[in-house]
Amino acid sequence: MLEKSRLFTIPFHRSFADALVEGLIKRYDDPMTLAQGLILLPNNRSIRAITEAFVRQSSSGLLLPRMVPVGDPLLDDRLGAFLDPVDMIDPLPPAIPPLERHFRLTRLVKKVMQKQGRTIAVPEAHRLAEELALTLDQLMAAEIDPEQLTQLIDPMAEEELARHWQASLKLLECIITEWPEELKKTGQIESQERRNRLLDRLADRWQTQPPSEKPIIAAGAITGSPVSARLLRVISEMEDGLVVLPGLDNNMSDEEWQLLGPHERDPDTGIKQPSLESHPQFQLKLLLDRMGVDRKEVIEWDPPKNYHPDNREQAIRHVMAPARYTDRWRSLPEKERAFPNLSVIETAHPEEEAQVIALALREAVEEKGQTAALVTPDRALAIRVSALLKRFGIDADDSAGRPLSLTPPGLLLLDLVSLAADHFSAVSFLAIAKHPLVAFGEDRDLWRDHIRSLDMILRGPLLRNGLAGITAKIKEAVDHQTADPELLEWWEKTKIPFQALDQQFQTVLPLTKIVKILRETANQIAGEKIWAEAAGHLAADLIAEIESLAADHNEDMRFSDFAHVLRQLMDKQAVRPMTGGHPRIFIWGLIEARLQHADLMIAASLNETVWPPIKEADPWLAPRIRSELGLPGLELRIGIAAHDFSSVLGAKKILLTRARRDARAPTMPSRFWLRLEAMASNLHHADNLPYWARQLDEPQGFRPVTRPAPNPPVLDRPKRIAVTRFDSLQSDPYSYYASNILGLRKLDPVDAEPTAAWRGSLIHSILENWVKEDNSRIGKLKPRALAFLESINAHIIQKTLWLPRLLQAIDWIEGEVQKNAAEGRTILDVEREGRSQINGIELFGFVDRIDRMGDGSLAIVDYKTGTPPSAAAVKNGDMLQLVLLGLLIEHNGIKDIKGQVSAFEYWSMAQDLKKKTAGYSRSVLGSGKNALLPEDFLNMAEERFIRVTNDYLHNQTPFTARPHRGKKLYDDYVQLMRFDEWRSNPQSKPAQN
Hints:
The protein is elongated, with a radius of gyration of 38 Å. Helix 10 (about 225-235) crosses helix 12. Helices cover about 45% and strands about 10% of the residues. Strand 25 and strand 26 form a beta hairpin. The longest helix has 27 residues, at about 795-820. The strands form seven sheets. The chain has a seven-stranded parallel beta sheet, with helices on both faces. Strands 3-2-4-5-1-6 form a six-stranded parallel beta sheet. Strands 20, 22, 23, 24, 25 and 26 form a six-stranded mixed beta sheet that branches. By secondary structure, the protein is of the alpha/beta class. The protein has 38 helices and 27 strands. The chain has six domains: about 5-90 and about 195-265 and about 275-310, P-loop containing nucleotide triphosphate hydrolases (Rossmann fold, 3-Layer(aba) Sandwich); about 100-190; about 330-400 and about 580-695, P-loop containing nucleotide triphosphate hydrolases (Rossmann fold); about 405-575, Orthogonal Bundle (PCRA, domain 4), CATH 1.10.486; about 710-745 and about 825-993, Lambda Exonuclease, Chain A (Alpha-Beta Complex), CATH 3.90.320; about 750-825. It comes from Zymomonas mobilis subsp. mobilis (strain ATCC 10988 / DSM 424 / LMG 404 / NCIMB 8938 / NRRL B-806 / ZM1). InterPro entries: Ds_break_AddB, P-loop_NTPase, PDDEXK-like_dom_sf, PDDEXK_AddAB-type, Restrct_endonuc-II-like. This is Double-strand break repair protein AddB.
């Protein structure tokens, strides 16, 4: 016997899907009766939840009723096709497809803004079009005709708006005037408008002609547009109709219920009391008001036998009470504010939070038959937890899937567009070359070998734009015999598919051409693999749809613009696996958790701006305008999130988690978390889980590392040393050992900032050519520098940034050389190599410049792009590179260069702090009474050279890491020597091995 009431609710402490299905099976003993029925649900995800509940509840098998999605609070899902039968007398026009709508609205936004004399970037136009689509949907869902917008707004009130809101409103008025005409051109209507008409027709038809499907059940709605409310009202009045709402609080006091709103304007003051849209019951009250139904008409759905209402419902009601009633918390009895089987965990950061959640889910698997679900709106956390669960061999069933932009096909397409947008930077190209889908038909191992060789070559400063920069870099490596000529042959074939991108990356192109180039390039470098499986199919459909739309609604843009647009479109496309994951471990979004429970519910990311979400401003309508139009306020999403949180609190066992800081800054606890802490007594903090999570990766013990001091045999020690490496040998022997004995070199990053070595090489080449080819003629250095800078394979930005300083420096150099010439000092030679045997060790190096002084002696000049060593450092014997070059001359180590060295100078291109210009010189001999005599300087250097080489190259002295505290040259080997592990212990003794 069916009850008289057709309106029901399932309280929070019962799983909506399971309770609904269990009740339906009991109500309709004949399986065929239920199979002939129709269940209207909010969205496609709800259908999945109800289907799985039928599977759980019908152990012997069951023919399922038809299930159709008829609405969604965020307007994301489409209606079932059955609502638009082919025999309809007055068929409705087709709805405009979402992507076509997006492109046409974008074009309209740009057109209207151009009419108003305003410019807008392509990515911004697409963003505004997306927001405009949402605003139009909300207007139509609320049955506000967009064309009547100007009549619904008081012209006087508009003048009170801020200027940016006035501009947005005027722009919106122009757009909504032209948009209906745009749709008429193609005979289409808005999908939301079509939905409204279909539901109205359905409601009218069912009032006079009941459907053949019986029973009719509308379930799971927590929000409702006016047209949805009318349909639910019709269903509730049908003999075979049932309406089942989730989480309606029938025991809430009438005073609190009426306070929620919406409220009418005060006839005397004209003031409208604001609604409490952030309350979890507000949307249900609004729905009942629109249905014209009193809350008392709604009864609980099929309560179990011997059923006693759980105190959990009272606790949920109290914790979500409107702010004016929270003072009652202090007087509540213990049982009405307690949440048994609820634990909370605060972690230091999101990584730890993910570890804790993964461990809790893994623990749930140990209990036979127990199910567990992570519920979070934070997709980054969900993806992180999913990855951590694989550590335990668990592939969680993630209902939300993964954005297309994060799948291999999506990433490759985005990388290709970014390659053109970034003007073929080495980083962008290597990202594509290393992509798992790319191999150009080669054996994968052979392809990796080529890419690794290319990676080594491309390290260093940014190259010139386009494929030409990469080609020139490879040729340079082959010419210098640092790369195999076979690599160049391979590259000439490999670059062919990228030539279309290379030729057009700086050009404004029609979108049709951009998409065609992208598709063809992807096909050539990845083949059919890029379009395979679920992600590939979705990517292929998206590219095909964009290409088709571009042919009819074309727009011009650059690849850099399309990079933003494509990512924006891909982010909205979710790729879901073809098969489910673990049968008992789930990752749910808020929509899924709204209608079902697991034995353990983990609500995560309970931080403000995440759960609940941040109140994002509508760029088109000011908050007051939205209120005047009757649109929901910006707190609508908070109220829905509050209802979802209440649903989680109704589970049997609950774990709430949050991280005290995110990647950027400390976080603020969710308002729901703070309410729970303030009201509930003795919340259980599950501190054991964070401890266990940390123990997973905690080392079993800690053995303090000692200062490394490798001690190879004398026979394995070098018998030659460069002047540039001697200072490393004496100040940090371990670094010398790592570089000159182990042969380890720090790799430059790809597309790195210009290094001192790069700038030094540049200035050395310019000055060498000026001396050798121009004979140091005044007036020739600047043209020589400009020509050389133009010829090198470097990015235009780096050339441009370095040019002003370079020109200042060469002007100073030219002036100094001219002044020196007037005093009888001339340039003798540049870039001369020298080598000589000293103490049985071959000392070798290059002298940047050798000058002949007026008295016949020699001066050694070393060019620096940065700050040169101080005279004190040289006098202490710490920086001896320059004097060792003089020692080579003294030992006749440089052919045809004879004479006594009387000057040692650094010529720096750095800023002269006194003159505020680039370029100054510094003598390492010092000046005044503290000046060193050249012969004393040379003798000191030779004695130091003999002592150091005796210690480290002739004898078996350990190459100790940083033996002299406070002295260091480079940090290239800090990680290798594990410096941070032993430096805090000054008593650490060198280890010898």
